[in-house]
Amino acid sequence: MIVLNTYAIITEQFPNKETKVKDFDPYILKDNLLEFTYQEDGDLIKLLFVKKRIDQEQVNCKLVINYMPYSRMDRKIEGDLFTLQYICAFINDLHFEKVYVIEPHSAKTIELLRNSEAIYPALDWLPAIMDQMQFTDQDRIVFPDKGAAARYHNTGYDHSCIFDKTRNPETGRIENMLLKQGDIPKGAKCIIVDDLCSAGGTFLWAGQTLKQMGASEIYLLVTHCEPRVLSGKLLDQDSPIDKVFTGTSMMQQTHPKIEYITINLENYV
């Protein structure tokens, strides 16, 4: 989905699957803001068409990327292409005045995108969630791995914990998860914080470990959540995760364990 100055661009398909973009001339301003929500590769072609039309008016245009596509393919792995660099090159060639990325998976995205800036709304959501959960000094913010810890080290909360997880190099499955930093007091409420949830295996493992260590309530805060989570075990009745707080960058399906948080772009752009 592409939104131009709060107007949702309308697209259709011709019978041969080519993209048809409906006129949006009345919504082009002197200074424009495009909001891009990736759902499939065809959305990148739509972004190309929309930006090229705006360019014809010789006006300014900034881009907000709600979720950076291919952000997990952020390095060269034997046998696979380093695809993030190609997506970033594609966006760079569209020559946006500024590019804002909501919670990039790693610093590589910002490194590859010209005139870009990362936005971390989870850090703004966290205090309100802590208040809602009535956090005390006996409760804990939990980072499931060192990547999350590096991303959110500015939480301003002293009582945080960091897990260290080990994956099987061939299957990618988690084989072990140990508490590397901090402690879990008996009866503690915990909020696990990270950028992205897919099926939720990491958070399910972390939640089970926290329960074994004596945690009483466990919540998950992720900016991006894939629809795949609905088919996993993370949201089951017997899951250790009591509730998931997330944005609407990748899904909006309702579930009793999911609470959506809206990003107010005016606070960042």
Q: Can you list the strand order of the major beta sheet?
A: 11-10-9-12-13-14-15
Tally the helices: 6
- Following the backbone from N to C, one meets helices and strands in this order, namely EEEEEHEHEHEHEHEEEHEEE
Rg is 20 Å
Low-confidence stretches: none
CATH topology of the largest domain: Rossmann fold
Number of domains: 2
Largest sheet: 7 strands, mixed
Query: Could you tell me the strand content as a percent range?
Result: 25-35%
Number of strands: 15
Please report the distance between the alpha carbons of the first and last residues: 19 Å
Structural class: alpha/beta
Q: Provide mean pLDDT, rounded.
A: 92
Shape: elongated
What percentage of residues falls in helices of 4 or more residues?
10-25%
Main CATH class of the largest domain: Alpha Beta
Q: CATH architecture of the largest domain, please?
A: 3-Layer(aba) Sandwich
Please render the helix and strand layout as text:
Elements: E1 2-4, E2 7-8, E3 11-13, E4 19-21, E5 31-36, H1 42-55, E6 60-65, H2 83-92, E7 98-102, H3 107-112, E8 116-119, H4 121-132, E9 140-143, H5 146-151, E10 160-167, E11 174-181, E12 189-197, H6 201-212, E13 217-225, E14 243-246, E15 258-260
Parallel strand pairs: 5-6, 6-7, 7-8, 9-10, 9-12, 12-13, 13-14, 14-15
Antiparallel strand pairs: 1-2, 1-5, 3-4, 10-11
